[in-house]
Here is the input.
Amino acid sequence: MRKKLRDREERRSRFRGTFARTGTKPGWRGYPEQTLLLQHIVEIESGQSVTDHLWFNLTKGFRAVAPLAEGDVIEFDARVKAYRKGYWGHNDIRAIENPPRWDYKLSHPTKISKVRN
Here is the structure.
């Protein structure tokens, strides 16, 4: 669990992260959606590291600062949100293998800018 993000739940702040790479995930009806990985994410106001990595959908805002190369530093505003993780169904074996839990993410990134290469 990202405990440092839990303490900031529902608060909107400015963050900075280092672009690592792109990827894909299965989206609506199985169509692949592009994603990007940011590492070493820091809240700018406090200067405190909040998490080692987060995956984001490759949204219009992130495309606007493209092309991104490994090591590019990105700044953005985002709100801390809780999300369900693991298996939440009724199959006890699957629930033991991947127990249900809550984790935290940065949601709805806006004002995205590339700070440096």
